[in-house]
Amino acid sequence: MSGNSVKNPVPVDTNGITPFQQMLASCSGALLTSLFVTPLDVVKIRLQAQKSPFPKGKCFVYCNGLMDHTCVCTNGNSKAWYKAPGHFNGTLDAFIKIVRREGIKSLWSGLPPTLIMAVPATVIYFTCYDQLRAALRVRMGSHAEEAPLLAGALARVGSVTVISPLELIRTKMQSQRSSYRELSEVIHSAVRNEGWRSLWRGWGPTLLRDVPFSAMYWYNYEKGKAWLCKHNNIREPTFAITFISGAVSGSIASIVTLPFDVVKTRRQVEIGELQAMNCGYRTPGFLPRVIKVAPACAIMISCYEFGKAFFRKHNQERLLSSNT
């Protein structure tokens, strides 16, 4: 059999990798981002709880840069990642004292909800984006440069639609102190009392922030990456180029969408506190959002691109070996 008659053993797409490989790359990126960024928000919440202790029924939004999680305090400051023992004099002091008193593992005490919710959402989002961008570039012809903008928006709509019911159910479970064994009853109760549409409560405000953010992020990221590659006279982006492009595009998108973030956070808090008791809430600030989102975007996209490059090279090597 001649070399030209040997079929490609790896069914790759136009990006040179399979959708499953894209999912693996995005999953690894989400895991690494969670590991790096979660301690920052754990410390921030502990500092916030120290200044204004969370009463029973208090609801706040925990965000590690990948995804927001609405949390309801059931027994005051009982959970490790937002209780406030001792006194912290600042971020660095909080890091040191938490590690000394409670062990280094406590810095990742907010990780479980991220692994349960954010990782699947991120896998769906990034994989859909790459598939949609490749398809749209072919169909949009002379307007192919705008494909990342549209693909980013559509991918975000899809991931938010899938995850919104899960987020609302989890909030209800927390506020009603329900276990995962009682999950079925929680869902039936919500549907029976408020209908199926109640599972997507908060979907609209979430889209108001996340869709514009996603569209701007991917458009600016692709533009920035292409410009840096051209400026450095290279064809393939390096880890540094993807990291810088992700951080800059994430910062720009987070600044522009900050008003929508305030609306979304208030809505999330209201949903959680309606399930428990009405208390005051805080709105996110400009600097905390940028500080958190920029590194999260940078770590996520650079790890994702590195993973795709790894699989692309692997596929090419398999193809060459099969043709020899």
Structure description:
- Belongs to the mitochondrial carrier (TC 2.A.29) family.
- Keywords: Membrane, Mitochondrion, Mitochondrion inner membrane, Repeat, Transmembrane, Transmembrane helix, Transport.
- It is a multi-pass membrane protein.
- This is Mitochondrial glutathione transporter SLC25A40.
- The chain crosses the membrane at residues 107-127.
- The chain has 324 residues and is mainly alpha-helical.
- The chain has one domain (19-72, 85-272, 285-311): Mitochondrial carrier fold, CATH 1.50.40.
- Helix content is 67%, strand content 3%.
- The protein has nine helices and two strands, in the order αββαααααααα.
- The chain has helices at 19-51, 91-102, 111-139, 147-175, 183-194, 203-231, 239-256, 258-274, 286-322, and strands at 59-63, 68-72.
- Strands 1-2 form a two-stranded antiparallel sheet.
- The longest helix is centred in the C-terminal third of the chain and has 37 residues, at 286-322.
- The chain is globular, with a radius of gyration of 22 Å.
- The protein starts with 18 loop residues before the first helix and ends with a helix.
